[in-house]
Amino acid sequence: MPWKVTTEFSFSAAHCIKDYDGPCGRMHGHTYTVRIEAHAHQLQGSEFCPHSVMVADFKTLRWAKRDVDKGGLDHCVLNDVMPPEYETTAEMIAKFIFDRTQAKLPPGITLKVGVSESPNSWAEYWED
Ligand SMILES: Nc1nc2c(c(=O)[nH]1)N=C([C@H](O)[C@H](O)COP(=O)(O)OP(=O)(O)OP(=O)(O)O)CN2
Ligand SMILES: [Zn+2]
């Protein structure tokens, strides 16, 4: 695919992993880093720009950094915000952000979402 954009941002949130035998099973917080890659064959307009000049609008891709009261994930309890079919592991947060982001975009854009709880650990989700 000839076009690719990448954006990285962070948000802070609390979570606990259900039935986890250890500290991660207790409510605690992280400043998550998210990296989203978007690929496309053609440039398009966006919800903010009518001209075909973007793979995907960074503003659209970065929705999750907004405050939870404004539709994002910042300063939320992930267990309360994410539907129960998603556990709050970095893997499933990546899938949740992938699914929500894809729903905000027109067809023809391929996404890859990475989520990190700490600089040493990343999870990524994409669909072939
Ligand atoms: N594959 C995954 N493993 C773990 C996840 C996850 O999302 N995916 N999450 C956790 C917990 O959320 C926990 O908060 C993180 O634990 P840990 O990696 O141990 O974090 P630390 O920064 O404390 O790492 P140290 O190695 O202890 O310094 C656990 N596992
Ligand atoms: Zn954690």
Automatic annotation (TrEMBL):
<comment type="similarity">
    <text>Belongs to the PTPS family. QueD subfamily.</text>
</comment>
<comment type="pathway">
    <text>Purine metabolism; 7-cyano-7-deazaguanine biosynthesis.</text>
</comment>
<feature type="binding site">
    <location>
        <position position="30"/>
    </location>
    <ligand>
        <name>Zn(2+)</name>
    </ligand>
</feature>
<dbReference type="GO" id="GO:0070497">
    <property type="term" value="F:6-carboxytetrahydropterin synthase activity"/>
</dbReference>
<feature type="binding site">
    <location>
        <position position="15"/>
    </location>
    <ligand>
        <name>Zn(2+)</name>
    </ligand>
</feature>
<dbReference type="GO" id="GO:0046872">
    <property type="term" value="F:metal ion binding"/>
</dbReference>
<keyword id="KW-0671">Queuosine biosynthesis</keyword>
<feature type="active site" description="Proton acceptor">
    <location>
        <position position="24"/>
    </location>
</feature>
<dbReference type="InterPro" id="IPR007115">
    <property type="entry name" value="6-PTP_synth/QueD"/>
</dbReference>
<dbReference type="GO" id="GO:0008616">
    <property type="term" value="P:tRNA queuosine(34) biosynthetic process"/>
</dbReference>
<keyword id="KW-0479">Metal-binding</keyword>
<dbReference type="Pfam" id="PF01242">
    <property type="entry name" value="PTPS"/>
</dbReference>
<keyword id="KW-0456">Lyase</keyword>
<feature type="active site" description="Charge relay system">
    <location>
        <position position="75"/>
    </location>
</feature>
<feature type="active site" description="Charge relay system">
    <location>
        <position position="117"/>
    </location>
</feature>
<protein>
    <recommendedName>
        <fullName>6-carboxy-5,6,7,8-tetrahydropterin synthase</fullName>
        <ecNumber>4.-.-.-</ecNumber>
    </recommendedName>
</protein>
<dbReference type="InterPro" id="IPR038418">
    <property type="entry name" value="6-PTP_synth/QueD_sf"/>
</dbReference>
<keyword id="KW-0862">Zinc</keyword>
<feature type="binding site">
    <location>
        <position position="28"/>
    </location>
    <ligand>
        <name>Zn(2+)</name>
    </ligand>
</feature>
